[in-house]
Design a protein that fits this description.
522 residues; mainly beta; Jelly Rolls; Methylamine Dehydrogenase, Chain H; 2 domains; six-stranded mixed sheet; five-stranded antiparallel sheet; globular
Amino acid sequence: MKEQVCTVDRFDGGLTREPRGAGNQHRISKHFNLQAYPKKLKPYESLTADASTESDLDTYKITAFETGSDGYLYGLGVESGTSRPKIFYKTTTTGTWSAAPGTGFDAASGTRGEVLFIRYGAYLFGGHTGGTFKYGPIGGAPVFVKSDNGTAANNGTLLAVQGVVHSKDGYLYVVANIANQIWRNTSPTQTGSTAWGSAAVLTLPGDNTIVSMCEWGDYLAIGCNRTSGGPVIYLWDRNDSLNTLSESIGWGVGSLKFIENLNGLLVGVSVVGQFSTTLATIQPRLVVKAWGGGANVETVAWYFMGGGYRINPNLKFKYEDSVYFFLNPPNIDGTNMAGMWSITKLAQGGISVQHNLLIRNDASLGGDYTTNLFKGLYRWDDYFFFSYLNTANSDKYTVWRTVNGSFGATSIYETTMNPGMDEGVKHDPKQLMSVRLMTESIVSGQSATVSYRVDSNSTDGAGTWTEIGTISDVGATAAEFTVEAAGDNFDSGREYEFQLKSTGGAQITALQYRVRTTSSLL
């Protein structure tokens, strides 16, 4: 017989569909900030409606956010009772939304586009059915110019592709209403052909549809789906004197949804099999690939998603080493995980993918993958802002944001099987002897709970969790348990999993457990 004390004290390995994955990976994580705090489970703060009366937000219908050159938060909404674009803003994270200074709309504008909304100099640019609009100069006497592109092509009107202001030349690049063309604005203060030129600066082959762009060193990376062939990412050196591309990177199969540059690693997210009708056994799956140069594109993660799901290609937001996006609504091991997800480039190398939080705390939004519930996400200072359709209120528009110091949601972390255990012990029959849960010092209203299950269904994560114990005494930092919370002895078996729950903001720093192998023929 052998005994081992197993320790789990690093949590940033990301979601895995392999139940016997690494000890720092997980099968489920909700409402924990694993990117910023890899060595402990620190909950995200609660979210709340970003208005004293939530119905006001349906009047504004804000779908996108951007920080202005004055540091304030701006939202792309509509003029009340119309579909025309209108600019709103707020000066503090907890303040109210109001009409932006100056003239924030034009009564002759067309229908608002929901995605293109980007700061360029002291101006905000967006799209509508009448062309590309701009608002600014912020900090001066801002006005709304409904047809900034003048007689140029209908740049970026309703096509769901966010623009890019490239740091190497300082110019704005947008996708035209012709989905394989890119136009460039060389001066935010000018209009018409003076700013936009008289022709697209890049036209891709006609079977390409651009779905996402990002900066890649000196290049503009352009993610496309093709009617003939799989998805592809092009690298373009921004030289419009030749309609040529510097590199073409095949991105496998499926439908490419978005791309992003994570500190020199080009990451792309695709979905595969979502609309398969030929093979009943095929499940839709999310595929994350990465490319750092060279010949090979590496598949770094993939996940089966129960039912269908939707990713809006441009509901992404890059912050430091992570890109955040909406996924709606994947069902993992019977758990609704619709909400904000992220991909992170880890300091120690590699990529992790995780579900961050539901955007209405513990409440499900409902709906299905055919409904585009999610409209916008943004991080302003340390506050997240989310725009979405509230299915519990007739699909009305709303905006929710972070609440400082409040922890209303239940944070959950479920480990892989036998986390932290030596390989030579993992497959042996064994008995769980004791469990230790460690936390930061507990304050009033906080609690941390550990539960377990053994030899559950490894395919779908089925199996009932049995509570072991809870830490809730003020000032406590650890507790050890030798029996279940109900007083029964621990079950024996081969493969143990643990579930860690936090309420009130309790921060879990480590899990330790001791096992003893039992008799075996090997």
